[in-house]
User: What shape does this take?
Amino acid sequence: MSDFIAQHPVVVISLIKVIVLMILMMTALAYLSWFERKMVAHIQSRWGPYRVGPHGLLQPLADGLKFLFKEDPTPGGVDRLTYFLAPFLAMSLALSAIAVIPFGPGQPIEILKGHPTGLQIADVNIGLLFLFAITSLGVYGVALGGWSSNSKYPLLGGLRSSAQMISYELAMTMSVVGVVLLAGSFNLREIIEKQHGHWFGIPQWNLLAQPLPQVIGFFCYFVAAIAETNRVPFDLPEAETELVAGFHTEYASFKFAMFFLAEYANMITVSCLATLLFFGGWLSPFPATARFAWTLYLPAALLAVGAVWLFVDGLRYTTRLGRIVMPILALAAAGLAVVCALPGVMEIVQGPFWFLSKVFCFLFFYVWARGTLPRFRYDQLMAFGWKLLLPLSLANVVLTSAMLLVSRK
Amino acid sequence: MVPSFYYLVLSAILFGLGVVGFVFKRNIITIFMAIELMLNAVNLAFVTFSRHLGQLNGQVFVFFVIVVAAAEAAVGLAIIILIAKHRQSLNVERVDLLKL
Amino acid sequence: MNAELIVFVVLAGIAVLGAVSLIVQRHPIRSALSLIVVMVALAGLYLLQGAELVAAIQIIVYAGAIMVLFVFVIMLLNAGEEERTNLSRVARYVGLPLAFFLMLQLAYWIGRGAPGHAAPAAPETTKGLSQMLFTTFVLPFELTSILILVAILGAVVLAKRES
Assistant: This one.
């Protein structure tokens, strides 16, 4: 056993990384659903889940148990293979996209002795194209799910949804070409490395990079990505008031949970990609000079503030479970804060901290849009994608190449 | 190191299976898919030769084959939809008159 | 029995099984799914040979767009299972062996064209490929863009003939 480990270190390290990332990812997906419900509720002047555990924190667990134990009927007349395949396909594709996303720079950690490894499962030279390939294949989950249900509303919802996805996929991939031109590579690490440095105090993220700040590219990318993940305001094909529930109408407990989680995983992937391509990934917005050395303590400081708040709120909580659990969580957060301030751990934590905070901002924006915006009608949606976003992203490509040519003359 | 011969044999097998599908199936769409299978087999042969000879020309050709297959699929499927609407059937044995 | 050979055998097996399934299945949607499996397996084989950009294009364009078109058409036309007619005797006893013989011939004659060992994999295929596309092959590149435009026009005209 230990000599299998010695002879195949790469396999073992990758396996460990995959297991850790899967656990983190599933927890993140579960709590993303909690976050969405709480936030949409607060936007609508009500509380979200409040009873199941302190502040509704055990709600995802309750939902998970419900999905496991609920009856799973299969409608008659479905095409069995595709009916069972579609949710698995959607979920597995959505989860495998995380494999190429880098969370931090360099090779800081050593899972096995003597083999320093980076915070990324697979450093592929065509990392960006891999993500687009996964997105392209994701259309099948929706189309096959809708068709195999042998029912009108899912069929229409599935066809509309997949037509929308392939239309916005074009705008999404074209809008990223500007970034690829600036970086000269499809490798996600190299794209982030090119965004290093500050120009008169402005961080050189691709959003603000010279020679052409990729603002149009970012706008096109993010709007197309929201449409691609079938979220508000582009969620007509799966809105409850429109097409019953679109392509996942006939899916019950566990399979519906898979579609649902696949949608959230797609949201997370898209947000990660937006931070990597346009917002500098793991790079800090502050320059790495001595004047800003205090920013290295930001993760520890934020965790400490969170710990204090949790402690104070926990002691005054209404239920006894809350009064016990929340101070324990507060102590755990305080412990993490102390660990993040230790000199060895501090440098490793910087990269993932900035990356995760930017991803969190994007997810916040997604949920905010869900709570606030009305949805597009289907013909407006398609017209917007083909007649506005695609020409705009093409114009971005032309402009970026022109500016690059001029600045490199 | 997998010898190029293995890839070429695989390409020949896939091409042969595409021919079998093209000749023996009766659904228009399945016949079209067998054509796409043949194109894919040819792509594999191109990539194998490109790797074997150390040149990139083969991969450029694969790029063009994929693009042409896309154009062909678009127009071909439009024609198939028209035929299916006229003949109410996707059976290729029913489309055997010059007059539609 | 190194790792590359094992991966090749697995991917080749998946590709052949997918191709056989394409022929054997009676419902067109299952044939379409089998073809998608073949394409993904072939993309894996391209990656194994170091052709990264081609593998990515195969999945993004071929498996992710062209096959979606096929799947849409099958769904729109509500294609059902094929009618069961037996193959004629000639087809079954002469045709299938002839097809097998064709495969053998192709394997022999094409296989003869690759003697000796393969050259080592080029490291930067994406860059090399794009440079070739824009210098040596720029004319076919521009012609294919016109071809795609013509195909779009043709598809629109054909689809509009209904109304």
The domain at 4-94 of chain B is CATH 1.10.287.3510 (Helix Hairpins). Chains B and A do not touch (no CB pair under 8 Å).
